[in-house]
Amino acid sequence: MSFIEIHTYDSTTVTITKILAFINKYIHYELEVNDVFLAPVETLGYKSRDCDDFSILVSAMLDKVGIESVIGFFVNEYDQYHAMILVNLDDLEEYSYYYHEDLTQSGLDPGRWIIIEPQTTIETQDTSWIEQWTLFAVSELDV
User: What stretches of the chain show up as alpha helix (H) in DSSP?
Assistant: First the structure.
């Protein structure tokens, strides 16, 4: 985490921005033939993986710096599946975002849960793209 230069005085949004910038600089998307969930260190070692591995890695990094997150599993109208991160946060400062206001029925803490696409930087989060996805399950990392 020190390589990313995260500081205790960074806001939550700045911390998320730095983590996403690091991930998007060093990890690239690669479709998996055998869809398995990799540990964060494995994804870092391979320097590539698919959406669930991006999500696991980003969630682990957020957890390491004390930012509450879960992995969200989504489906769209074409029965395509996708994984993204949900962060319990009021807003992302000047950045646009899509969110769920209440996910207590999914066992999550009360509050706004912002959806973050871990495969893009904070500046390129596309709310219109995220809107196509319907959340069907969430999972906390077991660290």
Answer: 12-26, 40-46, 51-64, 127-130
The correct CATH number of 2-139 out of 3.40.140.10, 2.60.40.10, 3.30.429.10, 3.10.620.30 is: 3.10.620.30
Domain boundaries, the chain: 2-139
Q: How confident is the model at residue 29 (pLDDT cuts 50, 70, 90)?
A: confident
Segment 72-86, tens digit of pLDDT: 999 999 999 999 999
> What is the sign of the dihedral through the CA atoms of 28, 108, 60 and 100?
positive
- The first and second tokens of residue 133, run together, are 């996805």
Q: What is the DSSP string of 126-140?
A: -HHHHTT-EEEEEE-
